[in-house]
Amino acid sequence: MVTYNILIEYDRDGQKMLTFPRRINSFNNKILVNKEEEGMVVMLDYGGKFHWTYKGCERRVASLIGQKTGKVLHHTMRSGDCRVCSIANRKGEVPRKHKCSKNWTGSAKAMEPDMVVQMIRDLKEQNVPISELAGDDDSTGYNRAIKEMPDLHMEKTSDRNHVTKNIVNKLYSMKPKHKELSVMVINAITRNFAYMVDQNKGNQTGIENGLRASIDHIFGEHAHCVQSWCGYLKDKTTYKHSSLPHGKDLKSLDLKSDLEKLFLDKLVPNSKKLANLASSQANESLNMTIATKAPKYKHYSASSSLSYRVSSAVLQKNEGYSYVSEVHESSGLSPGTETLKRSLKLNRKRDRKSTVSKTREGKKQRLLLKKKRSSKNSGMEVREGKTYESEIGLEHPDQEEIPEVMEIDKFDKEAITVAPLLVFDLETTGLSRSSDIIQLAACSKDSTFDTYILPSQPISKEATNITKITVRGNNMLYNSKPVNFKYPHQALTDFITFLSEFSCKPILVGHNIKRFDCHILYNALRFYNMYSEFCSHIIGFVDSLDVFKHVVPGLSSYSQTNLVDTLLDETYAAHNALEDTRLLFRLITCTSQGNVISDNITDFIFSSNYPHNCHMHQDNLTTFSEAINCKALSKATALKAARSNLRLCHLKLSIIERNGLDGLRAHCCPNLRIKEKCV
To answer: Composition bias, kind Basic residues: at what positions (predicted)?
Structure first.
C-alpha cells in the first residue's frame, strides 16, 4: 500500500512550486507500493467545511486516503485569493515576486471536481494504480476523471456516512406529514438500515431483500424477514419491537407508502452501490486535524501559510507526532529531546485511543454517550422552550420553563458519622398538618431546649386532653398551672439560635416526624421565611419510628410509650415535649440494642428539604385531579409526574407546543404512557 504524499502548489503562471525546501520535501514524498497489487481502494473527501479560515473564503482542500493503511496518498488545494496580489492590485502596482497562493479562477463549486482529476492524474503519473474511488455523490469529479482519462480502470463507490445522512434527512422531511413518524421511529428505521447494509456487504440480492424486509418488519409483515435477525420468527407469541413505541407495529398505510417510495423506488435500483459502501471517516479525521492547525478564526487562506499547515496535518496523519523531529533532522537541525518524548507520548495515546475505538465495548460506549447527549439535549430543549430561532425576538415566544426533576440530596458520610444527635418533639393544637405549635422541645447529650408557644388558632379538645395544655385569655396553662410562653417568631428564632451553638451541625431525631412533626415545623418556619436559615444549621432528619421497626421487628405497637415500656421497662407522662425528648434520647442511646440511630443512620437519614418537597408534590398532584377523574391518567402515573416536579400544565405544554409526545417522553421518561384526552 501507499503512503505517498504530493506537496505541490502553483504560482500565478501555473508553474509547480515545492511546498517545503528540497530536503524536507524529499522526506515527505515517498512511495511504498506493493508491486503485487493490481490496484487499491482510496477514500476521497473535500475539506471546505473545516478549512475555510473565514466565512466565504474561496479555498478548498481535498485528500485521497488508502483504505487498507489509512495513509494519505495525496492531497491538493485550490485558492481563489492571494493577499500580496490583492494589496498590489488595490495600489495599482505590479505584484512583487512572491509565492502566490492563488491557483484558481473558477467558481468555488468547480474546485472539487478539478482537484479530484488532478490527484488521480498525479497518482497515475507516479504509477500508483487505483481500482476504486470512495466518496460522496455530491460532485462530478469521478465522471470528469473518467472522461479525461478513459484508460482508467476505476470504479466509484458511495460513502456510507453520506448515504445514511441523506436517508435521515429525507425521513425528517417526511416527519411533519406523518404523526406516527416520531424521532424514535426515525432512529429505529435508520438503525435497521445500517444493520442491513453491514450484514449484506457484497451481496446485491441481500440488499434488495433487506430493503423490503426492513420496511415490512416494522409494519408487522415478516414474509421477507430472516430468522437470524427477526425476533418475531423466533418467538411469535411474546415478540415486541425493541426500538418502536411501546414495542408495537406501525399502522399508517400512508407512511408505509412513502417509505416504500424512498427505500424501494430509489434505493433498490442502487443496490449494487449499497452492497459496496465505503467510509470516508479517515478523511473527516484528517479534516479535523487540519482544523486544529488552521482554525477558522485565523485568516490563513490568502497566503502560503495554509499550505504548510495542511502539509503538517498530512504528515501527522501518516507519520504520527514524530514528524516534527524528522523534519528537523532532514533540515539539519536537532530533533529535540523533549520533542521526541512528547511525540512518543502522543503517539502512544493515539494508538491506545484507536485500539479502544475499534473494540465492541468502545463502540457501545460511544453509542451510549451519544444517546445520553441526545436525550439530555432533547429534554432540556423541551423544558426551556424556544430560546433561539430566526426572528424570534420579533414574535411573542413561549417563555415558560418546565422545572427540572428535583435532585436527591447526598450526605457526607464523614459528617453524619461525627454529627451530634438532637432529639426534638412538638405538641400542637390538633392532629392535622396545618396545626400550630404550642410546645417545642429538644434534647441532646449535653443540652436541652424547651419553650411554650402561644398559638394563633384554638387548641382542640382532643389536643388538650392529650397535652394538658390550654389557653385562657393571654395565659397558657399546663396541668392548669400557668407557664411562660413566647410568640411563634421569637420561639423559632431562639430554636435556630440554639441549633447554631453546636460545634458540628446536628441531626434532628424524632418519633414519627416523617409523617407529622417535620411538616408542622416546616409550615411554621416557612410562614416567617425562616426555613432556609433553619436548614443551614442541620444536616438532616432521622425518624426513630422507622429505625425501631427495622431494629426491633415484630412488636405489636411502635408508639413511643410502648417502646419505653418494652425496652426500658418504665412508664412516663407522655405528650409533654420535654419528657418525650428525654425518654426518646435514652431509647436510642441506652438500650440493649446499642445506639440504634448511629448504627443505622446512613440508611434512615433524610434531607431537611423533605417537607418542602412533599408540600410541592402535593401541590403538583392537585393539578391532575381533572385528568384522574376522567380516567385520562392513572393516579399512580400522576403521582410519578408530581414527584418529578411536573404539573398538568407542563405536560400540556410538552405535548401541544413542544414536540408532541416525543417532547413529553424526552422530558419525563421514555416509558410514560398517557392518553390524548388528558390534553
So the answer is: 365-375
d(CA 184, CA 335): 54
Nearest to 131 by CA among 41, 25, 32, 260: 41
pLDDT of residue 659: 55
Pair 99, 214 in one domain: no
Length of the chain: 679
- State how far the Cα of 62 lies from the Cα of 115, in Å rounded to an integer: 7
Q: Is the pLDDT of residue 425 over 50?
A: yes
Q: Are residues 169 and 154 in the same domain?
A: no
Q: Which residues of 398-425 are buried (b: 16+ CB within 10 A; e: fewer)?
A: eeeebeeeeeeeebeeeebeebebbbbb
Task: Assign 3-class secondary structure to 566-609.
Answer: HHHCCCCCCCCHHHHHHHHHHHHHCECCECHHHHHHHHHEECCC
Could you tell me if residue 217 is inside a domain? yes
Give the amino acid at 388: Y
Radius of gyration (C-alpha) of the chain in whole angstroms: 38
**Domain count within the chain:** 4
Residue 30 CA neighbour count, 13 Å, CB half? 11
Structural domain containing residue 71? 8-159+279-319
Cα–Cα distance measured from residue 576 to residue 595, given in angstroms and rounded to the nearest whole number = 24
Q: 286 with 185, same domain?
A: no
Q: Name residue 184's amino acid.
A: M
Which band of pLDDT confidence, cut at 50, 70 and 90, is reported for residue 398? Answer: low
CB of 349 closer than 8 Å to CB of 45:
no
| Interstrand relation of 40-46 and 469-472 (parallel, antiparallel or unpaired) | unpaired
| 573 close to 564: Cβ distance less than 8 angstroms | no
Instruction: Show the cell assigned to 171.
Output: 425521513
271-289: pLDDT as tens digits: 888 888 888 888 888 889 9
Residues 251-261, mean pLDDT to the nearest whole number: 92
Q: Is residue 479 part of a domain?
A: yes
* The three three-digit cell numbers of residue 172, written as one number: 425528517
Higher pLDDT, 396 or 307: 307
CB atoms within 10 A of CB 639: 15
Q: Which residue, chain included where needed, has cell 445520553?
A: 372
Give the Cα-Cα-Cα angle 20, 26, 30 (nearest 5 degrees). 120
Is 348 within the bounds of a domain? Answer: no
Pairing of strands 448-453, 485-486: parallel
Q: What is the DSSP string of 219-280?
A: TT--TT--TTT-HHHH-TTT---SSSGGGPPP--HHHHHHHHIIIIIIIGGGHHHHTT-B--
Helix, strand and coil in the chain, % to nearest 5: 50, 15, 35
Average pLDDT score, the chain: 81
**What does pTM read for this prediction?**
0.56
